[in-house]
Amino acid sequence: MPLTWLVLIILAIAAVGFVTGRSRALQSAGGDSRDLHSLPIYYGSHVAMWAIVPAAAVLIVWLLGQPFFVNSRVLATLPDSVVTEGSSIGLVMSDVRRVADGLDVAVAQGAMTRDEAAAISSETTDVRESLGQVGVALGSDVSAEVLGGAQLYRTLNATGSLIMTVVVLVVSLGGAGWAVSRSDANFRARNTVERGILALLICAASIAVLTTIGILFALLFNTIEFFRLYPAADFFFGTKWAPSFSGRGGASDLGVLPLLWGTFYISIIALLVAVPIGLFSAIYLSEYASPRVRGIAKPLIEILAGIPTIVYGLFALLTVGPLLVSMFGKDTVGWMQGGTAVMTAGLVMGIMLIPFVSSLSDDIINAVPQAMRDGSYGLGATQSETIRQVILPAALPGIVGAILLAASRAIGETMIVVLGAGAAARLSLNPFEAMTTITAKIVSQLTGDADFASPEALVAFALGMTLFVLTLGLNVFALYIVRKYREQYD
Amino acid sequence: MTDASMTPAEAKPKRSSLSVLDARTRKRNAAETRFRMYGVAAIAVGLLFLMFLFASILRSGIPAFTQTVMDIEFVLTQEPFEEAESKMLKTGEYQKIFVNALQSQLEESGLEVAFDNKAIQRIVGKPGGTIRSYFLENPDRVGTPVSFELAASSRVDGYFNGRVTRENIVDSRFLMASDLDLVDALEEVGIIHSAFNWNFITGTDSGVDNPGGAGLGASVIGSFFMMLVVLFLSLPIGVAASIYLEEFAPKNRWTDLIEVNISNLAAVPSIVFGILGLAVFIQFAGLPQSAPLVGGLVLTLMTLPTIIISTCASLAAVPPSIRDAALGVGASKMQSVFHHVLPLAMPGILTGTIIGLAQALGETAPLLLIGMVGFVAREYPEGFLSGFTDANSAMPAQIYTWASRADPGFYEKAWGGIIILLLFLITMNAIAVILRRRFERRW
Q1: Cβ count near A249 (within 10 Å)
Q2: Cβ atoms A419, A317 nearer than 8 A
Q3: pLDDT of A408-451, one tens digit each?
């Protein structure tokens, strides 16, 4: 709540500043806005900008920095002895945080007064029990060191917040005051405000780059951490995927090859479904269909692209899987044991990719100049001969690009394989067997109560890195091909 | 040429003619028809898949919206009420009262079916608790006729919508084949019937063993809060970024880098954004797990490229003459953009934003990683602010949770959830289409 109040107060300062700045500028021009350099609203905005932007920047930096500062201070006071066998300094710190949060909750609920919470000690009261009463469950009894750490944590956070509030308010008021003092008729308010807005626009545009950097760092750090615990060669060339469950101990086999194979197998089946259907519908829609048929069929096929992948996943699990079992299962040829299989996931993913292939190819076929068609017809070729011998070769690089983009979608697809492909990692050629993919294993390794320091959880980041590099490579390659092709006719 | 056309075809049979199809032409024409048919077949297969998909969604999902209920009306007089309250096992007493009431109602309608307390429990569970709490809350209703509408168990539900039949029923503690006779009899007199399942739309998730009571309401609210975050972050940031890239950015390496970055981000698999969310927002920044706020942040990063690309396109569609005219009457560059270009591009921007939001609404994979599955979202958030930070599910995550539970009763709910999700998506896309039709301007 205090944070909300702080933000509201800053906004109030900005609002007051807006009015003051505007009226001060008008006053200095003798009440005639034509004597001002800029429109009056710019003088107001200038003050508001100075009231908000520096204060907000300080606030954000402080909020990000304070936890690190507090953590390091608390860590410095904790003796080494608190780290017992089988635990780590991270676990102790999370204990400290939990106790501190629990005390805050207790104060907020009125179960303790502020002084009681500050004076509580593990000798006089059972902290675990008294926190349990207000609904904060603690895993183990609270040692004196942890309690001391928690108290320090609370005091540091409380003082930190207090100082932050004061500093932010001072910055906000100072900024506003300085801006008001500059508001007179000759001040070039519009130029200053516009420069500020431009800076904001640049910041917004940089968020895309920041996201990429964030993805790269998140993946990279954890992947390096993983390779410290697990040999990289075993990961890249291991043919066995058998993670041991956390807490059970024992070595895990975390070879990526079976997952890669499952991913590629499913993607290939998906492309075998999507490419012929998508390509032929694109050819028909762009070359043969009347405008009316095109107007109906094209949006209908594109509906398939707007359906969320969870729908396809459920469709694979509950409709296509049982259907395939009834066709290839025990009762007929006996190829299929269960509903979840490479075939199920591949087929459904193929359906999902049809509109992707068809609309991209459609654009590319339409981009082939009409003169090439006319030339071919003039030589006596039929329409299909023109398409096969003139248009498709001309559009080929673009179509290859489209197929590569579709392949990258297939590799990164998650929900269909999580629900439809099964969980067993296998190197097998039988498309009716259950296999698993990189994405499905990322989900299964990271959901549930994973301990983020174990190789079983960290391997998900290495898998994510593999996936990111694969899809990014395919995309860059596909875009390169498409772009190169486009230049031919422009 | 004139020579050849004047010569009659019969005179020189070896030469080809336009009026007679020779073998080669026939072959070529056949190839043409065949090729055309491939195209027709491809479209037909595509449309068939679409129809098959929608048919199976509707066929499996509609039953989720009905609920088999048991209507029972009886009068509880003061005496048995006090007697029941004085017993040790109070709800058991109410159960007996309920069974007696059912018995008399059956006798009234002249039906003779043998049943016992156990059979009733298998059909409607243990209604004693519900009845007792009703009378404890409304003591003035004691002595007047009260009608109860009790939800039947999921197996009985299954019997009503064809999932459970007399042929495939296996006697278990959940339902016996003999109970079906009782159910049939009760249906005949109108005590058991199907009703619209409001609980599915307004309720919250139930435990793993009660598919009948599961509802989507809480996760709709979770999705709503997530979409609020996405809208209020991605629209301003996306528009600001596009304005910079389209109107102000100098052509240099940094601009190129940003543009390449955005087009590549649009193709990054959604699960990678989930990993980013887990590592940055939850592990690094310490935001709470399963919170709509985190989900919204992750989905914002995911939809930003889509919104930036479509916004750039609609800004570029505004003709340069508008900018020139504004600059000509003395507006600054910034004023020409914010006062003239942006309002004209707004319909296109909103359309792109709605489509981006629709995409985000159906996205599941990143939500799995930030912990929106694997727990039971039993409660609505308490207030507006806690709606962002309290653990909650979201529509697609809830559907996934149901699909991965063991009880097949949940599959029906998952399909029903998909119908609701698709209704939301169709509405959003329809709004986008209407916006485009209504405000689209051709220059």
Answers
A1: 7
A2: yes
A3: 999 999 999 999 888 888 888 888 888 889 999 898 888 766 56
Mean pLDDT over A23-37 rounds to 85
Whether B408 and chain A come into contact, CB under 8 Å, resolves to no
**pLDDT tens across B2-48, in order?**
454 554 545 555 666 677 778 888 899 999 999 999 999 999 999 99
Q: What is the 3-state secondary structure (H, E, C) of A322-334?
A: HHHHHHHCCCCCC
Find the mean pLDDT for residues A311-324: 91
Higher pLDDT, A194 or B7: A194
**B373: contact with A, CB 8 A cutoff:** yes
Which bin fits B51, alpha (ψ -120 to 50), beta or left (φ > 0)? alpha
**Cα distance between residue B321 and residue B328, in whole Å:** 10
Model pLDDT, residue A171? 92
B177 close to A (CB below 8 A): no
Predicted interface score ipTM higher than 0.90: no
pTM, rounded to two decimals: 0.85
Distance to chain A for B272, nearest Cα, Å? 6
In this predicted structure, what is the pLDDT of residue B217? 86
Q: How many residues does chain B have?
A: 443
Question: Residue A338 to residues A330, A432, A436, A438, B57: CA-CA distances in angstroms?
Answer: 10, 8, 14, 21, 22
CB contact under 8 A, A311 and B301: no
Comparing A120-134, A277-291, A471-485, which segment has the lowest mean pLDDT?
A: A120-134
Partners of B278 on chain A (C-beta within 8 Å) are: 446
Q: How far is B60 from chain A (nearest CA, A)?
A: 10
